[in-house]
Write a structure and sequence with these properties.
The protein is an alpha/beta fold. The chain has 8 helices and 8 strands, in the order E-E-H-H-E-H-E-H-E-H-H-E-H-E-H-E. The chain has one domain: TIM Barrel. An 8-stranded mixed beta sheet has the order 1-2-3-4-5-6-7-8. Helix 4 links the parallel strand 4 and strand 5.
Length: about 230
C-alpha cells in the first residue's frame, strides 16, 4: 500500500528535484534497514493507504517545482497496483520516474521497466553474505538477473549501505565483479539511529577514509564508471 508522498529531495534522483512515494511491505528483513515501519507495517499507528488519485493530486500541486518522483519502500515491486500507478504518473504528469528495488523480483522488474526512467538497485553484501544481510530473503542469482535488466537502462545506479560486520570493501567488490561493470555506484554511509534489528542500533559506521579507499579500489578495478559516497 502507498503510505505517503513526502517532501522534496535533491539527492534521491540524481540531477533532479523530486518528490518521494513510500510504499510499505518488503520481502527482505535486512537487520540494518532504516525504514522498519515500511518492512513491518504493524509498527505504524494505522493501516491507511493513499489512493492513486490523491498521489496525483499531491504531485500536481508541486508541478513546476519538482521534476521527478521517486518510488521507494519497502520493496515497491510487491505492490500489486504499481504498474497502474506508474502509468498514471506518466500519463498525467511530466515527471521523470525513478524506481528503487532490492533486485529480488527480476520478472516484475522487467515487466515494469518501460514505465520508469531511472532505477536504483541495492547490492546488499557479498554473494555469500546475502543470507545474513537480507534475513535469508534473497537469492543472489535473482540479483544478478535483475542487475542485467537494470544495466539495459540509460540511467541507473547500484548502491550499497556499508554496514560494519555485514559488508566490507572486498565483499562488495566481489558482488560488482559478478554483475559486471556499472555506470554509477554509490557507497551509502550506515546510520544506526533507527534499524529493523536492535542489534544494529547505535552501531558505529565505517570511517570516511574507509569508504574513500573502497571507492578508489572499485574505480581502480574498472567496476564502475562513477563512484559516489553518500553521507
Amino acid at each position: 500500500m502507498i503510505r505517503s508522498v513526502t517532501g522534496t529531495s535533491l539527492i534521491e534522483y540524481p540531477g533532479k528535484i523530486c518528490s518521494i512515494i513510500f510504499i510499505s511491505g518488503c520481502n527482505l528483513h535486512c537487520p540494518f534497514c532504516h525504514n522498519p515501519e515500511l518492512v513491518r507495517p504493524d509498527l505504524l499507528e494505522d493501516e491507511t493507504s493513499i489512493s492513486h488519485s490523491r498521489v496525483l493530486e499531491i504531485l500536481g500541486k508541486r508541478a513546476g517545482f519538482v521534476e521527478a518522483v521517486s518510488v521507494t519502500g519497502g520493496e515497491p515491486l510487491l505492490y500489486r497496483d504499481l504498474g497502474e500507478l506508474l502509468r498514471a504518473i506518466r500519463e498525467e504528469t511530466r515527471l521523470s520516474v525513478k524506481l528503487d528495488t532490492n533486485g529480488t523480483l527480476p520478472g516484475k522488474l522487467a515487466e515494469l521497466l518501460p514505465l520508469v526512467d531511472f532505477v536504483a538497485m541495492d547490492l546488499k553484501s557479498s554473494p555469500s553474505g546475502y543470507p545474513e544481510a537480507t534475513g535469508g530473503g534473497a537469492v543472489f542469482a535473482d540479483i544478478v538477473e535483475s542487475a542485467a535488466i537494470v544495466r539495459s537502462l540509460p540511467a541507473y545506479e547500484f548502491r550499497t549501505t556499508m554496514v560494519p560486520g555485514l559488508v566490507d570493501g572486498e565483499g562488495i567488490t566481489e558482488s560488482l565483479r559478478k554483475i559486471g561493470k556499472v555506470r554509477r555506484f554509490v557507497l551509502q554511509t550506515f546510520h544506526s539511529r533507527k534499524t529493523l534489528s536492535r542489534e544494529y542500533m547505535g552501531k558505529p559506521a565505517y570511517p570516511k577514509n574507509y569508504l574513500e579507499d573502497t571507492a578508489g579500489a572499485i574505480k581502480e578495478a574498472g567496476l564502475a564508471e562513477e563512484v559516489e559516497i553518500r553521507p
